[in-house]
């Protein structure tokens, strides 16, 4: 009895804390329905390395609640989960990783006791699969220069965030710029293709940082075909810039179409992207129609990406991007719509304690865009709402004349296309208590009710008007009577109201697409676990299903209706609610679809059966006005069953006047078109037959051609079969000569061509063609003018004259041929020129022919591309479509001298204290008679003043540059000169030094130290006394005599030769040059610098069966000396080659060097004895038989050796640097006229094409003993 008394007293105190007041009665004081206090918020993404996934659900209540789970709308019993009544404290369960995939789905927790059932919002568990690209073969993409390219990535789905990269196989990033960019979709876009884009390793990589995984797509190949150059363009290339890809008007690779709708939620990041194509690469500009760009706007990806962070409703509207280049513009429109999921306008609905017999109002105040739809449930839907005692008014549920059995947990579910809100509201209905009481505030002091927001009502209830946050707390109700008194404490918690701040907006959606409504609401954050959004259509709950084929998707205040149809049109209400209150908003969804087929087609004849009026009744336009009607016909004679368009009429018109052809059996149908597209056609009319008649028109597109000189071919476009208007169609061809008195000649034909024979050559005619059938003639035809056949011209241009502008360009003029001699349409003039000889080598007759065509009737032309200092012969002829006329009388002329080309090589060697030796090769093209060279030099870092030396000897290729400063760095320029001037200089830098040593071979006397000779003589005397020292000396000298490069050999084929060598460790990364000369032609060619560590060099492009001289020339390490030289012969195709390699003859080389060194020792010994006054046999022999050659020898030693078939290339080393006039230089007086780079040919596997060798003939080239004298 006491407990019931306390419950009634408490009710009297607290039954009016409504809407914004949440009551919490101590559990030990009275029974309470279940209240969800915590639960897992979805969605949950299970990562591969998560061992377990915990889904929480906890509620309070008295009695303690029991828990039940559903998965995808069906009862679900979690593993190792019990609903034993002795353990009701928690509904949480745990899933283990290895079984996660079978538990993927949407869960909902229900907490129940005898007073009601509370439930959570849906908790989605997502178990993503491991992302990977499919294994696929991708064909190469072949495009022309200037064309756009799209490389599709199509990355796999995975755990966000996902990052996309484009790299090569070698993990080098593909460079992005204005032309090449990656879209938001991950594809790689090329606005226009260039030759450098050709590669075979474009790879798309997708990175998923959360699961620490990177996947790679199969590499893609792009082949860009270059633009082909014509002869004419090549000739003019010296006057114009290189030809670029053709200019292309701009377009958009992304996005497609004309307009794109962009729907996003308030607070999200707006990204609008426009990627253009065209050449030159278009630029992108952005604008917002009717408004300024938001201040938060940023641009990325070279202006192609527009970004607005934290988008607001005012940011919505029309945006436009414009792609522009020199060829034009292209644009695209974006319709940006900003919406919101449901949210509480103030706070979720609060639980209420009410007196029996009163009306209970539960307000679910939500907002959102589109307006949320509110759905009401009682005890989580397990009990039906009483239709007689409850009613719904907008966002409020009203329980009329509430009774204790109406006590329950009520759910307000507010949702729109962007999400939902859920609130559990505990409603307690108690019998009235009329005992006296005294309310006390939370600080145990009586509450003052006079003149304030607090009031005690007649039924002794306590009322707070306009509850505020600071009203929250504990309120004590004290009741007393003659039997005593009792008190109960009520907990008041004032929450923010739930309010929809971005309601759903009215939308017009095309049928078959996806409609979205958003509903964004604000609510008290402490009620987040109970917040939900519920959607209704036309007041009815939307039938949501969790199956894959469901058309409705509700998540996060978003209602998404996929594949909409006309039945989806209506009012959608979003209800945003919490367990305390709710709010709602409504929006209209209009479905746009293609028009229905017209009905009741009627044919009415007007003036004749060939003139009829067709009328119809339009069908529904489905909310999009009809823009036009299309009338189609089908006839049974020529194309039965095939419908063709006959006429278009405006959408506001429902009739059409039709002009028909004769002799046909028609039927008609009509379909309507609106902004969505064309609708279905109507049912066809009954057949309508038209009578035969004469043709309505004559043939068109008449062509007159002359394939032969004495005939004229006439052809035309025949009438269509339906245009015959009757049987027996034929054509009358009439023609006569133009401009003279002539009669019409007429012919009737059934085909659509006619040939007039035996005409004069290229004579104008008048032609007309008229159609007729068995019912009459067509209208009067129009006259057409044409010519009979052409013939080749008969006359040549006269008075051909040439004006030479410079060394390579001339102007040629002529008198045009008489028009009568052209005998056809003048095409233009051809200029032919023949280079007869170079004035540098007049005995060498050339036959270099070239020509250019100049269209139109002209009297002069500019001819480029001539060679300087050459003799030419030039002719001109006229041409027409039939061919070329005779050539004019030839004109002979000569081009003047030009400046030479740059010298191909300039080297320095033999650096002394104040001098250095310069060696160079003559220019490849002298373009005239060489008069000498211009030498310029200056000190680097200290002086910019150039010193000039004119070398007036044309056939020299070396020069001692003297008067330099010791140990200084100089820059040297050398230019070749003719009478026309000096050519471009070649630059070289060199150092002067105190002394230098030769790097080729071993020179015992390379040192300039004057103390060396006495020590050497003392050592020699000791060798005579002690023989073992002599043996040591011989071994030492043998070591010094080894050449710098070892094992030099050659492989010779029919068209190439491979020169191989072995470099010692100290010679690695040095440079040398390979020079070769065809002994018959006498022109030297030289390679680029070759690194000695490469150990070989390929000379390609040789002639089969020819004899070549090959030289190896050193630089730096070998002081520009000619290291080795030999003569080789390429083999004839089909002949067996053989290999030459003298590295195996080391014993012979060693022996010869030892003999040479022993001779050197003997000479030294003789020198010592002679200084002592002694005589020796060799000296006496020399006195008796003087040897001129021996007197000319110095301390240097020249070794030449060879064997039979296999031999190394012969080498020479000149090692004296004592200033005695001996010079070790690699370039002889032979002129190095022609230089070329060596190229190496490889097979697909990277190996050399088969090495072949041929029979070689030995030979040698004499080296100069010193520089030639030059007059400066």
Percent helix: under 10%
Shape: flat
Largest sheet: 6 strands, mixed
Q: Helix/strand/pairing class, anyone?
A: mainly beta
Head-to-tail CA distance between termini: 138 Å
Q: Which spans of ≥5 residues are poorly predicted at pLDDT below 50?
A: 1-27, 82-88, 229-241, 433-438, 995-1013, 1038-1043, 1116-1120, 1135-1147, 1173-1272
- What is the β-strand count? 91
Radius of gyration, in angstroms, nearest whole number = 52 Å
- Tell me, rounded to a whole number, the average pLDDT: 80
Strand percentage, roughly? Answer: 35-45%
Please tally the helical runs, counting DSSP H or I stretches of 4 or more residues: 8
Describe this structure in words.
The structure is a single chain. The chain is mainly β and 1272 residues long. Helix content is 7%, strand content 42%. It is built from eight helices and 91 strands. Strands 3, 6, 7, 9, 10 and 11 form a six-stranded mixed β-sheet that branches. Strands 84, 85, 86, 88, 89 and 91 form a six-stranded antiparallel β-sheet that branches. A hairpin with a 4-residue loop joins strand 25 and strand 26. Helix 4 packs across helix 5. The N terminus and C terminus are likely disordered. This is Neural cell adhesion molecule L1-like protein. Its main location: membrane. One of its GO terms (cellular component) is plasma membrane.
Concise synopsis of the structure shown:
The chain has 1272 residues and is mainly beta. It is built from 8 helices and 91 strands.
